[in-house]
């Protein structure tokens, strides 16, 4: 299972870090916003013929202790048996969605979305190899769709309790055309959240840079938590919530 840390926007050249994994890494930085880039990238990762997970930053086990409580915190209230709906944007061949699908003791319906059909095909093959989920009602679905235009992919308003972004916003922010597309990504993630739902962005970017971007894209209310140091890098989770509708007070009803 491979993992890659992205550099800060002001940090070392991404091409230098990708060169051991990708023969055309020097040109990757300028085309990370192009769908064909990722087809080519994941095709090269799959040259051995046996698909394997490729994780940006870290794998599922590194953050499972944070994700599982978050899953329950934003899902339907107990004892409601309906599943928690989760969207993983820009999933690639990460084990994030599959890990939640397998581990959650409560029913989850997880949708993994990526713009690359090559990545989705590889992830589908990996899905065939995993054991059944912990909860028999859990489901995992794979979709080829652009996370900056989820509506075109068939994702309507208010469908999900939780949206996960591990490295997708970062990859957009690190390419020349990226900031505008990264803003559209954030807007789409918030649009598909149910009232009271949360968007979790996992990133190695310092809060001094990420929080102003998120506040510009989505408004105030961004919270930050340090995930920890993994592979010598400090990672953070940035949380944005879609406000729940206010409940009228008794006085307001009279």
Automatic annotation (TrEMBL):
Keyword rRNA-binding: no
Molecular function, one GO term: methyltransferase activity
Top-level taxon in the UniProt lineage: Eukaryota
Reactions performed catalytically: N(6)-methyl-L-lysyl-[citrate synthase] + S-adenosyl-L-methionine = N(6),N(6)-dimethyl-L-lysyl-[citrate synthase] + S-adenosyl-L-homocysteine + H(+); L-lysyl-[citrate synthase] + S-adenosyl-L-methionine = N(6)-methyl-L-lysyl-[citrate synthase] + S-adenosyl-L-homocysteine + H(+); N(6),N(6)-dimethyl-L-lysyl-[citrate synthase] + S-adenosyl-L-methionine = N(6),N(6),N(6)-trimethyl-L-lysyl-[citrate synthase] + S-adenosyl-L-homocysteine + H(+)
Methyltransferase domain: residues covered: 86-197
Principal subcellular localization: mitochondrion
PANTHER family (alphabetical): CITRATE SYNTHASE-LYSINE N-METHYLTRANSFERASE CSKMT, MITOCHONDRIAL (PTHR12176:SF83), SAM-DEPENDENT METHYLTRANSFERASE SUPERFAMILY PROTEIN (PTHR12176)
Job description of the protein: Protein-lysine methyltransferase that selectively trimethylates citrate synthase (CS) in mitochondria. Seems to conduct trimethylation in a highly distributive manner rather than in a processive manner, and thus introduces a single methyl group per binding event.
Official protein name in the record: Citrate synthase-lysine N-methyltransferase CSKMT, mitochondrial
Species of origin: Platysternon megacephalum
